[in-house]
Specification:
Blueprint lengths: L5 H11 L3 H10 L4 H19 L6 E9 L4 E9 L2 H4 L2 H16 L6 H5 L11 H12 L4 E8 L3 E6 L5 E9 L2 H14 L11 H17 L4 H19 L5 E2 L2 E5 H7 L2 E10 L8
Antiparallel strand pairs: 1-2, 2-3, 4-5, 5-8, 6-7
Helix pairs in contact: 1-2, 2-3, 3-7, 5-7, 9-10
């Protein structure tokens, strides 16, 4: 059996970031062959992932990549087990690489398909290899929960440094800065739709019935109830509809007015909150 020196163990440790004892054991099994030891450690890590795959991944972060001129944009949700790992520098880099590859690569129908593509920051390995290598060192389960790509001009914004909310906004015209401003508004105000016409008709009808009944209980005459309800529905739309909401950066104008002032039409948005289903409009 080849002698396993301290220098050999340190070299493998520097390449993998794994504990010294794991490196020494892998080198012994590989009879001193460092590349074989690395492959052995990677396979062992994959086995460990399979054992732990049922663990809850309730933490994580969003990553967004936008190129307004191309135009293309992507957003991904990468989950992990704990909040400290969600802010780990290499986890942040992994999320950014996944979003960039989704936007600038050939695209992907599923997270698994995307993970088999090259890593932008480490083009000699796949995103899956990058993810598995990081798992080997951190020993937390990672889950690429959601991905979306839009081949259109988009603004993007992640709230709380990417760990709570992510927003993509598809637009026509305008500019990236104004689109990002409206993404920040969406994250704060959580509209249900871009325009009134896109709201769920059942939701609108239910609100109108509630307001009509309330007006009757107030003793208002039937001939003015409809006008009253129309006025109150404007308040409802100002709460639910993006174009009708007062803009958070200047509540003297609506979001729609701000968009028009910047030569921009709002097409659709995707607003994700960590661990929840997406809510596109």
């Amino acid at each position: 059996m080849a002698e396993i020196t301290a220098a050999a163990v340190k070299s493998l440790r520097d390449r993998t970031g794994l504990p010294m004892m794991d490196c020494k054991r892998a080198l012994k099994e590989a009879e001193g062959d460092e590349n074989a030891a690395i492959e052995s450690l990677r396979k062992q890590g994959i086995k460990t992932q399979m054992i732990r795959q049922d663990r809850e991944t309730s933490e994580g972060r969003f990553a967004i990549y936008t190129d307004f001129a191309s135009p293309v944009a992507a957003m991904i949700e990468l989950r992990c087990e704990s909040a400290p790992v969600a802010n780990h520098q290499e986890f942040v880099q992994l999320a950014a690489d996944i979003a960039q590859q989704l936007a600038t690569g050939p695209g992907a129908a599923t997270p698994d398909e995307l993970l088999d593509q090259p890593s932008p920051s480490q083009p000699d390995i796949t995103l899956r290899d990058q993810k598995d290598d990081l798992f080997n060192r951190i020993r937390e389960v990672f889950n690429l929960a959601r991905i979306v790509r839009l081949d259109a001009p988009c603004g993007g914004y992640t709230h709380h440094a990417g760990v709570t909310k992510g927003v993509l906004l598809q637009v026509e015209g305008g500019n990236a800065e104004a689109a990002k401003d409206i993404c920040m508004h969406i994250a704060a105000m959580n509209p249900a739709a871009v325009n009134k016409e896109e709201l769920d008709e059942a939701l609108v009808q239910k609100e109108r019935e509630i307001l009509t009944e309330a007006a009757r209980r107030e003793g208002k005459p039937e001939n003015i109830i409809e006008k009253m309800v129309d006025g109150r529905m404007r308040q409802f739309f100002a709460q639910q509809v993006l174009n009708e909401q007062p803009f958070v950066k200047d509540d003297k104008q609506t979001v729609g007015k701000y968009a028009r002032a910047n030569g921009m039409k709002l097409v659709r948005f995707i607003h994700w909150e960590l661990g929840q289903d997406d809510s596109p409009a």
